[in-house]
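From the pipeline queue, job 12 of 40. The input is one protein chain; the requested action is below.

Action: predict structure.
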Amino acid sequence: MIPFWSICSRLLADPDLIHKAAEDRLEETRRCIGSLNCLSRLFRDLPYTCTMNPALGHEVEPEYHVTAAAFKKKIMVIGAGPAGMECAITAARRGHDVTVFEKAGRIGGNLAAYADNDLARPDDLRSIITHYEVMARKHGVRILLNTEVEAKFMRSVLHQYDVCVVAAGAGMDRGAMRTVEGHEHLIDVLDVAHRRIQPGSKVVVIGGGKIGLTVAEYLKKNGTEVTIVERSKRIAGDIKPSFKWRHASWVEELGIPCLTSSRPTKIAREGVTVVSDKGAETFVPADMVLLAAPREPNHQLFHELEWMIDELHGIGDALIPRGLEQAIHEGYRLGVRV
């Protein structure tokens, strides 16, 4: 017996699932990743939406239909995260000539880092990246890895392209931490998540949101001593209610101390001094301090390029840092109309 919802959610993610199975094209399937967008909206009596299927709920709207382009364009996409890859593949399906430039050695952007650290559904998250690899090959999207695009590089290639899409993600925002003594010791949590930096044996994570919790849980499970410092009264403030319980349970099961309603006042090589809203001061020993604060959009690259090419677009976290659903949907909508 197969639960109805198990089949239903997969068909919402990819309505062509049955046809692809019959035609031996299952590798092209958009897999349901269990983000529960569909179910959460059902409970609120709202139309279905799906993280993986941007067209769900918009089937009768022409602006969501993938149609042949009137004129074939040469498009460069900067960044191979979900937004960039979704845009590139959708544009290529319409007949455009698309090249993706990615400064890292793999596609996926920060989604790849989440997949490497997530304890709940790493295979589901990796399936998104695999899907993009398969579809990029099918539709002839060129992907140039280990290639960083900046103003000088752009000047050498701009004559080759009609359209440029900036999907280069977001970076660490140190703004709120600049007044903290020793803020120069802070390390971007994503540098550890991407394995660019090896974690210490005692780590303090400043920020108890999704990325902070994901990395903290992974590190703790793999033997690192971890403490979370969170300014709000509760952790997981940016996580959907459907998943808050999961992180709360893991934090408790793994024994990760969480200093909520607290902020760092001094960061040193030996550890972090933390003050609570009530004025209580605590010193937390650490040999590494990770900042898991809200991200800062990569507007600088966009502004450097805006005078170099006639048609320039920004999507995903490069525009406004948000979540996976917004990145995929925004990439799709641009790919449909570019």
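Job complete. The CA atoms of residues 159 and 309 lie 8 Å apart.
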